[in-house]
TrEMBL record:
PROSITE patterns: G_OBG, OBG. Residues 156-351 form the OBG-type G domain. One of its GO terms (cellular component) is mitochondrion. GO terms for biological process: ribosome biogenesis. It comes from Aquatica leii. The keyword GTP-binding applies. Residues 340-367 form a coiled coil. This is GTP-binding protein 10. The lineage of its organism: Eukaryota, Metazoa, Ecdysozoa, Arthropoda, Hexapoda. Pfam families: GTP1_OBG (PF01018), MMR_HSR1 (PF01926). Keywords: Coiled coil, GTP-binding, Nucleotide-binding. GO terms for molecular function: GTP binding; GTPase activity.
């Protein structure tokens, strides 16, 4: 079975967090080793303290990291002091901490130490101290020590974003084999769900369904922006809205479908304006509702030229830059079997078109570089 799933996924193992529930943040304590003391009498230099290094692994989750070391402390070995037998003290042993691919490492002050994007990629997160030598009075120096946060961002191809109750989980269930929780109340989805969409030619595309966003998410209303980090690495944003709009409860105003799209535009922009540059597919759901199509045709052009309607909104709701969609689809995730196929095909088409464009751009860039290199070789020599 594992072999078959590996085969279907193009020979690569399917990331474990794509199959299971997962922890997406973990705090651990790390300490680099202390350098060994030098030997003044002979000018001996102490060994360097070992480092704490994170190493990327596709096949593990942050839960595995906890299970493998419940203390969550990673202490590298100290360097050996210089001695008669070893004038240059041997270095301390480095500690390797395996983490899932997609992890970024931050200090408690929020400084980013780096990220792991590939299998076996390594990053030193706590350096060992130098050994004692003449310039530091032959006294070994302590290594770096602090707590760090391992922050996992999903690496899914498509990210589903929308207000609560828009039907994101229903769509995910319909297009993939995922089994998300579906209910007629907001915030049914409290953590990201991942589904794998399989096409007839066995190509597989991963889709992440994120908890619903609401207006004011940037000030932590609803689930806040916490989950938006997971769409940063997706290639395509699938933005979903309910044709009937959304109302959190009776105390809150009812927002029309167009309002929710403008508000999503605003929240995405406040989180990270670069998200607006990603390819985007707009899906309007619940078209089986009464006068669904009539409502859709009233707003279709406005969705495609979103910037033109901003003047109708108060300043606090107005985004700086409009979302520009590659396409707008009107579907019923619950009733429309053909609609589901249409969404699947559209996702595939857009991913293929953008992958092709990216490839062409890279080829152009490398051709340009090689032309420049050859011109440099043959061009007039500047003295
Ligand atoms: N009429 C109709 N109802 C739908 C459709 N799609 C989803 N629903 C219903 O809308 C409700 C919310 O659906 P979900 O899929 O849980 O919505 P969600 O966007 O994942 O919601 P959160 O988890 O709160 O973010 C459920 O009662 C669904 O049955 C549709 O196409 N038509």
């Amino acid at each position: 079975m594992v072999y078959i799933s590996k085969l279907l996924h193009g020979g690569k193992p399917i990331r474990r967090y794509l199959r299971n529930g997962f922890t997406d943040s973990l705090r651990v304590y790390v300490r680099g080793g202390t350098g060994g003391n030098g030997l003044p009498k002979f000018g001996g230099v102490g060994g360097q303290g070992g480092n704490v290094v994170v190493v990327g692994k596709e096949s593990i989750t942050l839960d595995d990291v906890v299970r493998s070391n419940k203390s969550k402390r990673y202490l590298a070995g100290n360097g050996t002091c210089s001695s008669h037998n070893f004038i240059l003290g041997p270095p301390g042993e480095s500690v390797k901490l395996q983490v899932p691919v997609g992890v970024s490492v931050f200090t408690d002050e929020g400084k980013k130490l780096g990220e792991i994007n590939k299998e076996n990629e390594e990053l030193i997160i706590a350096k060992g101290g130098p050994g004692g030598h003449p310039r530091n009075g032959f006294l070994g120096i302590k290594g770096q020590c602090y707590s760090v946060r391992l922050d996992l961002k999903l690496i899914a191809d498509v990210g589903l974003v929308g207000f609560p109750n828009a039907g994101k989980s229903t769509l995910l269930k319909a297009i993939s084999h995922a089994k998300p929780k579906i209910a007629n109340y907001p915030f049914t989805t409290v953590r990201p769900n991942i589904g794998i969409v399989t096409y007839k030619d066995l190509r597989q595309i991963s889709v992440a369904d994120l908890p619903g966003l609401i207006e004011g998410a940037h000030v932590n209303r609803g689930m806040g922006h916490e989950f938006l980090k997971h769409v940063e690495r997706t290639q395509l944003l699938l933005i979903m809205a309910d044709i009937n709009g959304f109302q959190l409860s009776h105390q809150y105003p009812h927002r029309s479908c167009l309002d929710t799209i403008v508000l999503l535009n605003k929240e995405l922009e406040l989180y990270n304006p670069e998200l607006l540059n990603k390819p985007k597919l707009m899906v309007i759901n619940k078209m089986d509702s009464i006068s669904g199509f009539q409502k859709f045709f009233e707003i279709r052009d406005k969705i495609l030229n979103l910037g033109d309607v901003f003047y109708e909104y108060p300043d606090e709701m107005k985004p700086e830059k409009p979302l520009i969609f590659d396409d707008v689809l009107a579907i019923s995730a619950k009733e429309g079997i053909n609609d589901i196929n249409l969404v699947k095909e559209k996702i595939r088409h857009l991913l293929d078109v953008y992958a092709e464009a990216k490839k062409e751009k890279e080829t152009e860039k490398s051709e340009f570089l090689s032309i420049r290199e050859s011109l440099n070789e043959k061009g007039p020599k500047l003295v």
